[in-house]
């Protein structure tokens, strides 16, 4: 019985959770951006790895927000 523990997840699960393709998940694992466990050729994400990825995604989102604002601001200046 699995009481309060999250299971290991697959690449497909992570892709669905973050609304990206499986190729993006594989690329992030291959470059070392996302931690993962390999079981033979399979890639799985432990609950601890899932937590780490969540922190990475949240912190990356916070850093990228100003870039979008600067792009929008620049486009508004060009059209004015």
Fill in the keyword field for this structure.
80 residues, mainly alpha, elongated, three-stranded antiparallel beta sheet, 11% strand, 3 helices
Describe this structure in words.
With 80 residues, the chain is mainly α. The protein has one domain (9-79). It has helices spanning 11-18, 22-30, 47-79; strands spanning 9-10, 37-39, 42-45. It has a three-stranded antiparallel beta sheet. A hairpin with a 2-residue loop joins strand 2 and strand 3. Helix 1 crosses helix 2 (22-30). The longest helix is centred in the C-terminal third of the chain and has 33 residues, at 47-79. It is elongated, with a radius of gyration of 17 Å. The model has no long low-confidence stretch (mean pLDDT 85).
